[in-house]
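Quick one - first record:
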Amino acid sequence: MINSMDLKLTAVSTDIKRISAGALVLGVAKGTDGPVLVASPFSAKVTESLQGSLAALNITGAADELVRLPATAETKAETLAFAGLGAFEESTLTEEALRRAAGSATRQLAGVPTVLFALPAATVGQAAAIAEGVAMGAYQFNNHRSTPAKKLPLGEAVIATAASADKDLPAALKRAAILGRAVRATRDLVNVAPNVLYPESFAQAVKDNAKGLPLKVTVLDDKKLEKDGYGGLMGVGGGSERKPRMVKVEYAPAKPAKHLALVGKGITFDTGGISIKPAAGMHAMKCDMAGAATIFQAIVAIAELGLPIKVTGWLCLAENMPGGASTRPGDVITMFGGKTVEVLNTDAEGRLVMADGLVAASAEKPDALIDVATLTGAQMVALGLRTAGVMGDETLRNAVVSAADKAGEAAWAMPMPEELRPTIDSQVADLANIGERMGGMMTAAVFLNEFVGESDGTKIPWAHLDIAGPAFNEQAAYGYTHKNGTGSSVRTLVALAEEMSSAK
């Protein structure tokens, strides 16, 4: 089910004359006076000639632009590929711009088995960013095709860098490869058809993917969930023939610096239940398990990197279907831990399964608790399709946003206004599962906050990531991001785990 291909990443010095490749990628910036060839590996004469030809060839340097030409005499590459870096001054070129340019070039060069990248890479950080972009751009989903696509994704990338002899570069390239694999694997899970990926098969995929890694996987089936009182999972999954699962994934190295708990929404398909969604676009609701896929692959990456931090993941898996045993609007369900919830809308189901996970995760008293979910359409209304909303305790919320910025992912801190709490009061139960319509992303976070526990009398630090928009791309591919599943927030969680591992 997780079939992401292997990718070879290597680095060489900027003297590239003897290196063979199907294509040589060069960077072009969108300058104020026209396109500018950046960090050319060629002689001054050839560089001047290429620079003089850019405008005539209608090469602008815009992001996502890629123009291929026959190679020059100073390279053994078969073609030159001019990749747009976007508009910037040379001193302000960001690692994310390199990441996106490398990913875009890799994505558009599908069918070329080996590519040499001569983008600006003076430092280990820049070389690693290029490697990450390549590792995320080299993706293709063929699980459901009778024959694979003819143009296979890139299999080998060679990065020309002035930091080729730096002792820190091998580890940086290894990290890039691990992050890229984790993102691609997350996309695989999100892109699988919902008749193939359902709670039981998702749980099996986790067990299969964890083999050979220092991970412990525990699966709670529907009988165990019913017995132990996981009312959110059982209520949401009751209408489906495919019964819910809770999957616990543990990474516990010796002498961990901290304990991070992650909870992921895993609605393998969301019809809305009795409060059924409109038919138009419902096929995309296979992506409603992206939160669970994200936290699982983040834990896999953390384990592969060997970070000195304990991480426990809770994958809350259910299929939300209408049926004779479905939860009805007006039903009251008892959540794991004992709180009761009046279900006013069965399409507000993600917060119900997540509540069970938050209570279970809180019982272990972690140092920090983060949940990730494609939770609300309101997230897209507020922040668009590419920016995750982050809510929760201010310190941890801001740490998550900082980690996202470091990783090159878009995230924005949002409040949880106190006036929203009374809107989820119920006339018959402890809580209602919906409240104020305006600011619905924040209202959902206010609901989840009610299920975060305490450790030694103090509330466990908690943050909530709503990735409804960023997790699934229904528009055109861009940068290293393909259509459909994106793998959003995997890198953010890994960056946060790295920060927590080194914090004193």
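second record:
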Amino acid sequence: MLLLLTVLLQPAAQAKAAAPQTTAPQPGVLLLYDSLAAGTPREGNVRDLERLLAAYSVQVTVVSLDRYEQGAMEAYARVITVINDPRLAAGSSYEADIDHYRGQYLHIGYNPPAGLQRTMQLSSGLIEEGSAGLSVGAFRVPVIKLQQVPYIAAGRAEKTYGSLTLPGTSDNVPYAINSGSYTYAPYLDTGHAGRLAMAYVLKDWLGAADAAESYLVINEIYPFSDLALLEKLAGRLYDAGIPFIASVRPVFSNTDFPAMQRYLDALKVVQSKNGSILVNAPVVMPSINSSDHTLGDKMSSFINLLAENGIAPLGMGADLYWTYDKEYSSAGMKFFDSVVLFPDENVIHMEKTNVSAAFTSSLYSMTPDFLADLTHEGKAMPQLPVGTAVTLNLPGDEAGLEALLQTVEGYWITFADYKQAAHKTVTDNYSVTSADGVLRVNGEALNVDYVPEVVSSDFQYKEEQYQSFRGLFSVQNQFFIVVIIIALLFFGGLLTVGYRLYRRKYLK
């Protein structure tokens, strides 16, 4: 009995002993901020930072410092703090944790923590107002406007990032520095220069791969767009040897109409001209119903429709806030492992969350204006630190088409072919993949060659309703028509006979 009890109790004792093991840090980055800097040049820098982090395929948890709970940062291997206002207190819970934090820490803005200052032997200054120059990587921005911006006057650093020319002098100071587990960048505004410089810092801080491609994305493509112009644009880009991505709006109803068939045919032409297809996020209306959970089924049906027609969607284009919404990310974006994230325009959440969805491949969208502010050696654009999507809207006329082509060719960018990389889109019915330029649907290589066909406009838009007594009424109508004709003939005969009898009587 004692032996039996020993055998029975042994597994329970082992399980109990295993329980106190520590939990490994969660993947991703904890992003803390003191304020959103409304009304200052730094307004929007937290959102810009979120979009840059997303471009490095990082899951981000965003928390305001006034809601920070003590001990929260210990679950993360990397923490970023953005201090936009030196007058705001960080909070005792945060200050207690930051002194004992041993992960990789990046501080942006004012009031770096005491531990960082001691390790880096940091000495800082303040630019009250003036114009400075910024050099980072292979790029230079000759003039940037600065106001109430701190800078690194001196410090011990293992690495430096960029070079800032102080206003009114020829003195150069580093944009950011790193020493051990600490990295410090004094400022991040919403200008193009600041975002580019921060992209270099994040690339090194996150240990991102060196390879970063640039892609051309044509956005705002709808079924009612000028599809002939879209096909012409695809042909012109193909002739110029420029691969591109078409981010197309989905259609959830009336997909059997001729207009939809013309839309699909235009996308086939785009695909045949070395264009890759993304499914753009549908337009969200202010009247959205929070109890409507049909987005997943609608997106799945559209992806299936594309695959059934020989079109391979390789990813999704969406505003950044979609990745911070439980419904949009879990229902609308779950089919894709690749995305292009655009700046937020009209933010309408359904179920907002502070934890972002991360994707294997994620591109940072920028406009040609971003590139126009940068100068570099030679004509060819140097490699950017992050995977980018140079985004242009589909033009509305021939003049816009010519302007777009001149813009694309004027920047001397070597655009990459999106389908050369690995992408995957999966629904219940279809698996669409790309690798080394080959598109596959359910494992079978897709032939992208396509000759456009004329779509007939002869279509019955309204289904004919069933009429139960239609046959009976038809027989009745024919019967009454025959009776009326006979009656008319009979009365006509009577009139003729009566006329003749009256005529004879009158003549007599």
